[in-house]
Specification:
With about 325 residues, the protein is α/β, with parallel strands linked by helices. Helix content is about 45%, strand content about 15%. The chain is built from 12 helices and 8 strands. The protein has helices at about 5-25, 40-50, 65-80, 95-105, 125-145, 175-195, 195-200, 215-220, 230-235, 245-255, 305-310, 310-315, and strands at about 30-35, 55-60, 85, 110-115, 155-160, 200-210, 265, 275. The protein has an 8-stranded mixed β-sheet, sandwiched between helices. Helix 4 packs parallel to helix 5 (about 125-145) and helix 5 packs parallel to helix 6. The longest helix is centred in the first third of the chain and has 24 residues, at about 5-25. It is globular, with a radius of gyration of 22 Å. The chain starts with a helix and ends in a 6-residue tail after the last helix. The structure holds nicotinamide-adenine-dinucleotide. Nicotinamide-adenine-dinucleotide binds near residues 38 and 213.
Length: about 325
Amino acid sequence: MENGGNRSRRSSASEKAKEIEAINGIVSGKNVLITGGAAGLGHAFLNHFLKHGANKITILDIDANAGKRVEINVEKSYGEKKVHFIHADVSCHEQMIEAFEEASKWMNDIDIVVNNAGILDERRWEKEIAVNIGGMVCTALLALKYLSRDQLGHGGTLVNVSQHIDIRNTAQLPVYTATKHAIIGLSQSLAESYQYEKVGVRVITLCPGLTETALTVDSPNKLLSRVMKADFVKNLDQLSIQTPYVVAQGLMSILKSGASGSIWVIENGRTPYEVYIPNPRTLRRTYKNNFILVEPKVTRGRPIREVCDNTRTGLMSCV
Ligand SMILES: NC(=O)c1ccc[n+]([C@@H]2O[C@H](COP(=O)([O-])OP(=O)(O)OC[C@H]3O[C@@H](n4cnc5c(N)ncnc54)[C@H](O)[C@@H]3O)[C@@H](O)[C@H]2O)c1
């Protein structure tokens, strides 16, 4: 008679096979563009897209040597014309316009964009903002242009890479954290304004926890001040670090089932889970000892139409 262990192993293997089949159904034959695809998480995403049968993949990166190396390695395993490397800096608008044009010509169409390139360097915080916010905004807007049905595309998915939403362990990374949180705002607003039903683009936010990449390994030497290093390293020591592989694997499952506007966390090498942005009223702090803030007398605002004065500025006109 078959024992329970064998039976559950068999059923979990068949669940896994079903999951892989479902992911293949979503990814297979698709054309993908990944920013920062030459290393770290971006490179792991590339490998998973290849594994699940993507048609063509463009990786865009500022590191020309790494990008070329990846292109050659993929050619060896998957043959020519599978991966194309474009050397570009996401924070340079002109380069990105050209890069998207080149990518869409090479692949014919773009179906999925992973907006991933980012840096951590608090000492060069202007650059950090330029890449992590400027570069991501630029990539997201171009992605929408090439994916949206009302523009150049036929629908698709945009994944914006943020970071773990728990800010309790980010005290020594104020600028980096600000940039990654900006991406949640960007992503949520785009998901709302470019409605999926109208333009056919799903906008998904991915929030990875601590992951073993060059960005993490170098981070203790990229802080605003040297005095922060001891606390930073102590904080890191308390966290467990996951591999890029599990994050990429998690992204494949998210692509299978994530709705537009959804936000996903992948931490500690576990299965992704979805989070939502709570209504601020439910987070309102209440005070002990009957301490109550005295609220000012509420005066109702004027109607927005009146303030914008339709007749003078036409601000509220939709035509
Ligand atoms: N590693 C983590 O723990 C972690 C956690 C949460 C979120 N993230 C985010 O994941 C993304 C990828 O990070 P990673 O850990 O793989 O880093 P990484 O440094 O290993 O890889 C980043 C890649 O982006 C490229 N890149 C950097 N600046 C660029 C630019 N201006 N233009 C084009 N390409 C550029 C790099 O050359 C590199 O190939 C980032 O947005 C990062 O903020 C990382």
